[in-house]
Amino acid sequence: MYRQEEARLATLAAEEAALLAAKNAVVDRSKYPGGKLTVYYATQTGTAESFAKEIEREGKDHGFMVKVEDMEDLDATIAAMNDDTRSPYGKDTAPHETTRAIILAATYGEGEPTDNATALVRAMEELIEEDGEEKKESDPLQGLEYAVFGLGNTEYEIFNAMGKFFDSAMEKLGGNRIHELGLGDDSDDLEADFEKWKDAMWASLKKRYVADGAMAAAPVSTDTTVLPDCQYAIDWQPHLSSVDAMQSDVDRTSVALDKVHGSSKNHFTAVDCPVSVIRELRSPSDGGSTVHVEIDISQCKSKNVTDYMTADNLGVLPINTPQVVESVANSLGYDLDKVFCLSKGTNRDGETHEWHGLPFPTPITVRECLTRYLDLTSAPRRSDLKLISSYARQAVDRKALQRLSSKEGKAEYKEKIVEGRIGLAQLLKLCPSIEIPLEHLIGNICRLQLPRFYTIASCPKVHGDSIHLTVAVTKEQLQDGSFFEGVCSTHIADKRNQSLRVFVRPSTFRLPSSLETPVLMVGPGTGIAPMRALLQDRKHQFESSRRKANMCNVLYFGCKREDQDYIYRDELEAYQQDGTLQELHLAFSRQNPNQKEYVQHLLKQNGASTYNLLEAQGAYVYVCGGVKMGHDVTETLKEILVSEGSMSPDEATDYMAKLSSQGRYVQELWS
């Protein structure tokens, strides 16, 4: 034991020494005339991280030594920062130069920070509140030079809040903006927005930091066979069997999270829980599928699963099907039963890449890696296709991929890749000369498999031993007659599954403290899930209270047809009969072929009573479902405030914003 501890301490000391050496290293100005540049990313789905890696790959060609950092790893105690500690790279080696930061910040939900940026955002807000907005010499970011690109979606009510926040907050805290804020829109062409901003950003940086802007990006030859740099190297473990490798999966929850890549923590903390019930909720005549799922947590000891509140979210880690895994392995010539570990890769100059932590438990088999941890089914972005072209051995495949990745090929990319639902498995068959070493597949080509979040459809006070989900199963027929199936919903609905790997995450749904405060719920389709949980909670509170309060719960539910997809009908009607639901309003959009009726139409019809609930009775409003529906509900409520409350449109907008800030108007929407 003593020797193991001695070895562990020696390893830690070596890592600290390596970090210090990297900070103090003299920049080779013949290679990097622009000096050091740190790129921080705030991401929920991995897109901002992939953009950060794109900047990193291009850095040397533009004359900069680029380092990528997860925003979660940036010390939130900004007040303690100085030139030497603000950046992981430290102060630049030239005495007249200060640190530079590129911020790529995604916005989550309705204007919220991503999980990995929450602590930093809160710390910056507190500092701004304490110090005011006027610049001072003592400001914690005094002298930091920065540029920000925000990733957002105009379909949401609040667009790109985090990009705007970082751009403004860094200036208030003393930073110096060196390139204009970029705002990307994922509802249109986020990638094109980023490319335009990135190209202009490089031009600004070279003009500012590189003498005469001399460096230029190296042109990409369509006949090149030189592979891009890769942050990983593969260490094969021929002495280990697949049984040996599975032990690392069993032990994954014991791995210290400071040894884990920031985007991968859920893969180490999630817990396998048995599935006890899978029940179809739609009529057989509907053609689609929505399932009610019950996950048994009675034997679970992890607070990552058991410690949650009503209508919180459950993260589910999907797995790729054996067919997809075997297709990718066959195309790339992988032996699925071989066992490996990961280590640091080196670039073409022999320089070792920095280690950002384990992306998944190792040692591991190739099969387990492809099954659990790599996204093999999502359509690659255009920038991904450009990168993949570097791995094509035949010019015809390289040129096809580069055409699809170009600005001129946007329409063809949308038709053939996005609408064609082309993932990696299909792409490898379409371009058979692609050869990707495993370390490059992990480090460059595939994103890590992301959890899918479902609002929990049960109340822990009522169902303490199980978690319920309401899941619409994605299955779409393509033009060639084949079917595209959602990787996670199909995994959840598969009755052959014995368990799901899950964890809980807080949501924004929180009931008012008093039962006498009315609750207005809008949840069409699977948006009914949190409303089911809230109703269970309200009924439990009512039955448990000694003094029977005057409870008011109003629900708007919508679906296509009453006889096809009116899910949880028996439960909702039972709640209406026992008094838990005072009002149940139903909108069937396909019932009448001459008139489509949606939940917002019913809300408008009940404008007077809705206004009374909001203004006179202080009701809380909860909305769950698609982004367009959420937008339409918000606009309808504004119209009601104008017509019933004699407000101006601007006053109605301010009123809704105030409700949101008070936690009285909460939306969880998806696009």
CA-CA gap between termini? 53 Å
Q: How many discrete structural domains?
A: 3
Kindly identify the CATH topology of the largest domain: Rossmann fold
The CATH superfamily label of the largest domain reads: Flavodoxin domain
CATH class of the largest domain: Alpha Beta
Number of helical elements: 22
Total number of beta strands = 23
Average pLDDT confidence is 90
**Rg (C-alpha, Å):** 27 Å
Unreliable spans are 1-8, 85-89, 216-224
Largest sheet: 7 strands, mixed
CATH architecture of the largest domain: 3-Layer(aba) Sandwich
Structural class: alpha/beta
Concise summary:
With about 675 residues, the chain is an alpha/beta fold.
Characterise this structure.
The chain has 671 residues and is an alpha/beta fold. The chain folds into 3 domains: 19-213, Rossmann fold (3-Layer(aba) Sandwich); 232-264 and 319-445, NADPH-cytochrome p450 Reductase, Chain A, domain 3 (Up-down Bundle); 519-670, Nucleotide-binding domain of ferredoxin-NADP reductase (FNR) module (Rossmann fold). The chain is 37% helix and 19% strand. The chain contains 22 helices and 23 strands. The strands form 5 sheets. Strands 1, 2, 3, 4, 5, 6 and 7 form a 7-stranded mixed beta sheet that branches. Strands 14-11-18-9-10-15 form a 6-stranded antiparallel beta sheet. A hairpin with a 3-residue loop joins strand 3 and strand 4 (112-113). Helix 19 runs parallel beside helix 21 (627-645). The protein is globular, with a radius of gyration of 27 Å. The model is unreliable at 1-8, 85-89 and 216-224 (pLDDT under 50).
